[in-house]
Amino acid sequence: MTDTSHDRLLIIDFGSQVTQLIARRLRESNIYCEIHPYNKVDAAFIRDFTPRAVILSGGPASVLHENSPRAPQELFDMGLPILGICYGQQVMMEQLGGKVDSGDGTAEFGRAYVSPKADMPLLKGWFKGGDEQVWMSHGDHVSKLADGFKVYGTSPNAPFAITADLKRNFFAVQFHPEVHHTPNGALFYKNFTDLAGFTGDWTMGAYREDAIAKIREQVGSEKVICGLSGGVDSSVAAVLIHEAIGDQLTCVFVDTGLMRMGESDEVLKMFRGNYNIPLIHADESELFLGALDGQSDPETKRKIIGKLFIDVFEKHAKSVGGAKFLAQGTLYPDVIESVSFSGGPSVTIKSHHNVGGLPERMDMALVEPLRELFKDEVRDLGRELGLPDSFVGRHPFPGPGLAIRCPGEITRPKIEILRKADAVYMDQIRKHGLYDDIWQAFVAILPVRTVGVMGDSRTYDFACALRAVTSVDGMTADYYPFTHEFLGETATRIINEVEGINRVTYDITSKPPGTIEWE
Prior knowledge:
Blueprint: E1 8-13, H1 19-27, E2 32-37, H2 43-49, E3 53-56, E4 82-85, H3 87-96, E5 99-102, E6 108-116, E7 132-138, E8 140-144, E9 150-155, E10 158-165, E11 170-173, H4 185-195, H5 204-219, E12 224-227, H6 232-245, E13 249-255, H7 263-274, E14 279-283, H8 285-292, H9 298-319, E15 325-327, H10 332-338, E16 365-367, H11 375-385, H12 389-392, H13 412-431, E17 440-454, E18 457-470, E19 478-479, H14 484-497, E20 501-506
Parallel strand pairs: 1-2, 1-3, 3-4, 4-11, 12-13, 12-15, 13-14, 15-16, 18-20
Antiparallel strand pairs: 5-8, 6-7, 6-9, 9-10, 10-11, 17-18, 18-19
């Protein structure tokens, strides 16, 4: 979403799964930035973009391999402040005459501690309490610095953890300041943007104005339908688009039969009670449940659901008189787990029902005004738009719904058992006043039956897993530390109140290595 009225920072993406976290860190300081893949950026692009500074991201490749990603060589002669992160550091060294090697026992993965070797403005506020905790993820390492660079910090396995050429304002680090495992990472980025002369003039109010202008330019006088789930993303997208084009928008709420207990009625009441936007209630539960019956492969489930959503939206695009655009609340975490951002080289984790374009037969284009935002930023935009707290504060709920919380074969009885267990769990969370402390919580019904004893009788029923996580942006997450009393009380209620479950477990996996959802 290009906006030339603000100081701009260019992030050249070499394919790291956490590149967008760099943008998040920068946005915390109200810095306008855009991410573009290395293979779409040349010297002409940079000159046209007119950045005040450039950041080179991490990535999965090795600079030692033939045809590995590079930055435009001309970049280093443009007089711009440059910061290289991990692979970005190695690219800088390789292109500026340094050397990168592999092996020799200098790989580092996970938490590490950097010791200072000299001071410089980029490190303002660092090392006050001694060595600084950072997050490393590298196999290759810099073995010889390019001319002009000096060492400002080292770690046990990274002798060039922090390096800089102060004369040219070139900085390079082996660790990832963007992840929360580097606690002072935000300060590190702020120091860099201060050095580059940024004033922090970009806000969510500015994003709102830019997005409205872009929607109007894209849509013109055509009609738009918006897939509304009632969650934060689609609600904010709908209100933003309605502000841009008014009655050209019609929302379509698709009841897939995979919603939580009472959710369809709640969404319709919530939306119709707050906004005067045309809304179609499409009850397609038989269509979705019929197509998913007996399916067990997670990717197959997602693709079936994605196709059916397209079919339903196509039908209602015709019913409103020929809508030419389909609006979705797609967010960046959806994109980065499905396809690489802006065509970049990151690795696919899983497909998402709302990512990947539309079939040609629909003769429709996508409107996705939130595609470059994280969940917390969407909530900020929602508040900027005046959405009620009941919208903005809702936990995320995936488009495929309960289907991806049912590992293994999907059947209607299993979905109903899952729906009831989820209702008990959420009631417990609300009753104990924990809802707002948790990013997302749900039950997964497991594809295994276990033996139990209830009322002196043998049972052979499903096991389920409780999941609750804390997060800021959905890219990383930790499990919520429930008390044993809470877990015991909740397990007892589920087993007593939900026929078909006789065993309850709690999932304490972080993200990474797991994802938040089970499929």
